[in-house]
């Protein structure tokens, strides 16, 4: 029998960086993607969330980085809690306390770690004892990229065709080869277009969308092979190509837009310059101007110093492969 936890439950989930990107939904409600995606979970950036369902609450309370969120700001969290309540057959409201652990106010915190941690804490607090596959399905309902943050190391999100079949699975949770990511914090001043809106525009208006699906499925297979063979060059090259193919969708949407800013372009050129100098490294970018550089651990310090001289000390963060979700009892 399901029993609501009589004490707060805390979950910790790390964010992830997609090497083969998710960009577009088949089903906006259930968050079923148009393609398989593949990521590396990162150890430095994570969210810690505590949830308790309490009979005395008359509404959900959401406290984010020590501030109580308004009704509108907490809408996505409350909708997610409604889904958890429905699964568990309960109707108590919840107190949710969540904190993002990111080295600086960097714009690197993501809905991936946020909804993965919320799925873990809320489901256990509601008395649901989900296995990791079902946790990833639940996290998916909050945010697509959260599906992959249930697992550590390299994880894939299989597209599936419905709620039951769209989930993440581990590829290599503890890679024995030393992969590092150097993250450049290049904050946007202009208001950004959310991933949700951006990918919808791509599906509906980019004439390149079907080519993207075809290319990303091939990239997915290639990156999987590269992980199996510990082939860093193949992994890096394919990930960089895949990122630019995704960004070509923003440029070819109507209205067109881009997540690049001037610093992003400078950073991408600097990565190419490093390659010319014989350092094997590759860039990727998501729905914002920050550039993430995929490299081997042995080169991370040198790459960090190179970028710090242009972008400043606090703007360059080094991280490695992180672990999957952990949930208190
Ligand atoms: C990814 N991104 O695979 C891609 C690459 C950003 C660029 O998943 O609408 O916040 O909540 O499912 O997961 C970011 O989009 O979007 C994302 P929703 P999400 O990591």
TrEMBL record:
It comes from Secundilactobacillus angelensis. The lineage of its organism: Bacteria, Bacillati, Bacillota, Bacilli, Lactobacillales. Its EC number is 4.1.1.33. Gene3D superfamilies: 3.30.230.10, GHMP kinase, C-terminal domain. NCBIfam families: mevDPdecarb. One of its GO terms (molecular function) is diphosphomevalonate decarboxylase activity. Residues 13-168 form the Diphosphomevalonate decarboxylase-like N-terminal domain. It comes from the Bacteria. Residues 181-314 form the Mvd1 C-terminal domain. It holds the Pfam family MVD-like_N. Keywords: ATP-binding, Lipid biosynthesis, Lipid metabolism, Lyase, Nucleotide-binding. Belongs to the diphosphomevalonate decarboxylase family. This is diphosphomevalonate decarboxylase. InterPro entries: GHMP_kinase_C_sf (IPR036554), Mev_decarb (IPR005935), Mev_diP_decarb (IPR029765), MVD-like_N (IPR053859), Mvd1_C (IPR041431), Ribosomal_Su5_D2-typ_SF (IPR020568), Ribsml_uS5_D2-typ_fold_subgr (IPR014721).
């Amino acid at each position: 029998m399901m029993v609501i936890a009589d004490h707060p439950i805390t979950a910790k989930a790390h964010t992830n960086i997609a090497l083969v990107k998710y960009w577009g939904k088949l089903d906006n409600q259930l968050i079923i993607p148009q393609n398989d995606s593949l990521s590396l979970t990162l150890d430095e950036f994570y969210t810690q969330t505590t949830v308790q369902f309490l009979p005395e609450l008359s509404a959900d309370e959401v406290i984010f980085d020590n501030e109580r969120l308004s009704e509108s700001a907490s809408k996505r969290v409350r909708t997610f809690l409604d889904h958890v309540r429905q699964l568990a057959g309960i109707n108590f409201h919840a107190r949710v306390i969540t904190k993002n652990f990111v080295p600086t106010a960097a714009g690197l915190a993501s809905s991936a770690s946020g909804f993965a941690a919320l799925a873990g804490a809320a489901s256990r607090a509601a008395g649901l004892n989900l296995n990791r596959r079902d946790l990833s399905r639940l996290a998916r309902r909050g945010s697509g990229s959260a599906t992959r943050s249930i697992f550590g190391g390299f994880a894939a999100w299989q597209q599936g065709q419905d709620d039951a079949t769209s989930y993440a699975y581990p590829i290599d949770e503890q890679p024995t080869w030393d992969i590092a990511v150097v993250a450049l914090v290049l904050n946007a001043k202009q208001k950004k277009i959310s991933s949700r809106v951006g990918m919808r525009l791509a599906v509906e208006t980019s004439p390149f969308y079907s080519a993207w699906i075809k290319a990303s499925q091939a990239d997915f297979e290639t990156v999987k092979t590269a992980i199996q063979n510990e082939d860093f060059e193949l992994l890096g090259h394919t990930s960089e190509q895949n990122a630019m193919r995704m960004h070509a969708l923003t440029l070819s949407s109507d209205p067109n837009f881009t997540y690049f800013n001037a610093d992003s372009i400078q950073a991408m050129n600097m990565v190419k310059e490093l390659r010319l100098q014989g350092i094997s490294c590759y860039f990727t970018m998501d729905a914002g101007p920050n550039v993430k550089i995929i490299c081997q651990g042995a080169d991370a310090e040198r790459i960090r110093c190179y970028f710090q001289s242009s972008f400043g000390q606090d703007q360059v963060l080094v991280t490695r492969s992180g672990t999957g979700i952990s949930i208190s009892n």
